[in-house]
Amino acid sequence: MSTPRRVENLHTDKGKVPVYATGIVEQPWDDYDAADHTTWGTLYRRQRALLAGRACDEFLQAQDVMGMSPQAIPRYRELNAVLGQATGWQLVGVEGLLPELDFFQHLAARRFPVTWWIRRPEQIDYIAEPDLFHDLFGHVPLLMDPMFADYMQAYGRGGVKAHGLGAEALQNLARLYWYTVEFGLVRQRGELRIYGAGIVSSGGESVHALESAAPNHVGFDLERIMRTGYRIDSYQETYFVIDSFEQLIQATRPDFAPIYARLAGLPAIAPGLVLADDRVFQRGTGNGDDA
Ligand code: PHE
Ligand code: FE
């Protein structure tokens, strides 16, 4: 959800009006009805079954430690008690996608905006906008991990800075979010595992990202990612693989301002393209093909 897009606010009767609601709202937990809790439970069970052996260890463990379960939509207040203890992060309820600067400022303050509403039953397999299931099930667990928690805050600070540098810098940074926070893969015990929220919250993409012969799996490379366009309307054509969250933190520690300047004006790399010096991973293994 890094890239503010025009969204159709589905919760007003104003019709299809693009809206950014910027305020923080209390999670209206008592207003969820049985269908909402069932939607959560159905998606939760389905994804947990798929993600065993596919998601990274940190993700699956954190959901258990936080007490997420298929029984009911979690209460943000209860999750915040656990999360605050672990890493100092807090969830804040929002209506949906935020303008970029607001989003960055929340992250920089270790606040993660979570959409309060959940998709309707007929949208169970696909919804274009991030809803509670994507934000909460997908993004929140890794905030329990100290390193990933620091990465997200650093990203927020970097976003505030990039916002002052112009549209191209922001685009470079948004691609980094896309290919890590949303669609990242990590190597664990020699196998590719998922950590990106956009993958773990999608049944189809959880399988596609790891088992389909179609997508490329390329070793993480900061500037390569900053130059790579992405698809928002289909499964990804390329996934970038980190060795560890430690690697992600180290690689993103340098000041990006000179990098943005160097990349300015360069053409984007198409999402499906493999470059000669990409480190390409063999499908189904965590072994980069270095030969
Ligand atoms: N080092 C980056 C900068 O100077 C900040 C950043 C850290 C951005 C981590 C993204 C992720 O802009
Ligand atoms: Fe997201």
What does this structure look like?
This protein is an alpha/beta fold and 291 residues long. The chain has a single domain, classed as Phenylalanine Hydroxylase (Orthogonal Bundle), CATH 1.10.800. Helix content is 42%, strand content 11%. It has twelve helices and eight strands. It has helices spanning 34-51, 57-66, 76-87, 100-108, 132-139, 146-163, 167-182, 197-200, 203-211, 222-226, 245-251, 257-263; strands spanning 90-94, 111-115, 185-188, 191-194, 216-219, 238-242, 280-281, 288-289. The strands form three sheets. A four-stranded mixed sheet has the order 4-3-6-5. A hairpin with a 2-residue loop joins strand 3 (185-188) and strand 4. Helix 4 packs across helix 6 (146-163), helix 6 packs antiparallel against helix 7 and helix 6 (146-163) runs parallel beside helix 11. The longest helix is centred in the first third of the chain and has 18 residues, at 34-51. The chain is globular and about 55 Å long. The chain starts with 33 loop residues before the first helix and ends with a strand. The model is unreliable at 1-18 (pLDDT under 50). The protein binds phenylalanine (PHE) and fe (iii) ion (FE). Residues 151, 154-155, 158, 161, 176, 252-256 line the site of phenylalanine. Phenylalanine binds at residues 151, 154-155, 158, 161, 176, 252-256.
Care to give the gist of this entry?
With 291 residues, the protein is α/β, with parallel strands linked by helices. Helices cover 42% and strands 11% of the residues.
Protein topology:
Blueprint: H1 34-51, H2 57-66, H3 76-87, E1 90-94, H4 100-108, E2 111-115, H5 132-139, H6 146-163, H7 167-182, E3 185-188, E4 191-194, H8 197-200, H9 203-211, E5 216-219, H10 222-226, E6 238-242, H11 245-251, H12 257-263, E7 280-281, E8 288-289
Parallel strand pairs: 1-2, 3-6, 5-6
Antiparallel strand pairs: 3-4, 7-8
Helix pairs in contact: 4-6, 6-7, 6-11
The structure holds phenylalanine and fe (iii) ion.
